[in-house]
Amino acid sequence: MSAMAELTAADLEQVLALVTGQDMETPGEVLHVARLEQPSLVATLLSVWEAEGHALGPALTHELAAQRGRMDYYRDLHERLAAEWRDPVSLKGLEIAGRYPKPLVRYMNDLDYWIPDRERYWEVAEWLLADGWSTHSATFFRGGSGGGEPEMILSLRRLPDDPYALPYGVELTTVALLGDGVGVPNLASLPAACADPAVKNLVALLYERFEQPFRARDLVDTALLLDGAPLPDCARAVTALGLWPEYVELAGLLADSPLEAPELPGDRRALARACRRRRRITMAGAARRPFRLAVTALQRGFIGGRAGRAWQAVTNRMSARAALDAGLMLFGLPVAGETTGGLTLRESGGALWAHTPVGPFILVHGDVVGEDLLGGASVVEVR
Fold first, then answer.
1. For residues 234 and 222, what is the distance between their CA atoms, to the nearest angstrom?
2. Residue 66 falls within a domain, yes or no?
3. Is residue 381 part of a domain?
4. Mean pLDDT of 63-85
5. Is 133 helix (H, G, I), strand (E, B) or coil?
6. Is the peptide bond between 103 and the residue preceding it cis, with omega within 30 degrees of 0?
7. How far, in Å, CA of 348 to CA of 351, rounded?
8. What domain count does the chain have?
9. Cα-Cα-Cα-Cα dihedral of 318, 323, 328, 330, to 10°?
């Protein structure tokens, strides 16, 4: 499938059926399944139907126009941000959307930027706040390129003019990509081959497998990314990062779909076996610290919606500082307060606080911040 070739409604419907396992006979059923199970595909479906001459009706026409407006907003923001700073590395998003055949739409929830330089990281965050954005949340964790300073993912939001539309979002991260927390480490920097956007975004798609199963949109994205991509460079990056098991899974789904995508060179199954062996060695090393391995697995279950009594016991008995030192992620709730010149962690009132150039955050490793921990501090509201 050429990047400029026609992507048909039949293609998308078959991809949707493949990923969900659902039988669909009417456009209404297709739309219902997409909304319920694969919402990131809805905008593309609507735009394909419109391009093929199907009458969408007023409601769906308005919905599609709103999605196009959302994309225009993100393009304008990206252009303004890139005019100020050349070095923030964008991940997926607009770069993949640009490979979609016109006039098709790729839904985007937010913009993602990797900014490893700490000074530049805070400059970009402050620029966004001055532009009218608000801090929404933050995630702190050990490991990566920051030495003793925790890595960060800062989420910012901005309310659209339409009060019934989802907020706009931007995520800034100091670490390139997140691994599985056990066998695949977080990626502190990108291989040289990732200078090519197609290689970089393929790697980013494969890393997302550690967060959730591949989605219907992932198949479309990958087919468009690989069309015309430097396949040897893609293979070198996948080898360097040990992502062949994820690529084999994704390539298998693509092979069962109507989408045409070139395959990466190499003996895929042998390379995947070698990657799994490397991961087992890494996990064996992690097993020397069984408590850290266990609590990491419990937190990943919590993040994936599988929290149980064991994780509740961890959140009740471990302090936030101990959780951070044990390798867990801490989730930050922004509160009103003074800004600082850099990132500093301080314990106060039985809670761990992160004081930053964009304001303070109270840190927890679960999903509840007690009123007693806030100590009367006001939570920042999105505006």
1. 12
2. yes
3. no
4. 95
5. coil
6. yes
7. 5
8. 2
9. 100
Residue 127: what residue type? W
30 with 110, same domain? yes
C-alpha distances (whole Å) from 353 to each of 125, 218, 282, 319 are 19, 37, 32, 12
Residue 65 structure tokens: 């126009």
Report CA 312 to chain centroid distance, whole Å. 26
Locate 132 and state its tokens.
């009218």
This prediction's pTM: 0.90
| CA-wise closest residue to 203 among 166, 242, 173, 255 | 242
Residue 286 pLDDT > 70: no
Residues 31, 100 within the same domain = yes
Looking at the domain assignment, is residue 341 inside a domain?
A: yes
Does residue 161 form part of some domain? no
Do 308 and 240 reside in the same domain of the chain? Answer: no
Name the H helices within 318-376.
320-325, 371-374
What's residue 213's pLDDT? 95
**Domain extent for 332:** 290-374
Which of 202, 183, 304 has the alpha carbon at shortest distance from 254? 202
Q: List strands edge to edge, sheet with 359-364.
A: 89-90, 111-114, 168-173, 151-158, 134-141, 330-334, 359-364, 351-356, 344-348
Which tens digits make up the pLDDT trace of 210-245? 999 999 999 999 999 999 999 999 999 999 999 999
Same domain, 19 and 89: yes
**Are 190 and 248 in the same domain?**
yes
Q: Does 133 score more than 60 pLDDT? A: yes
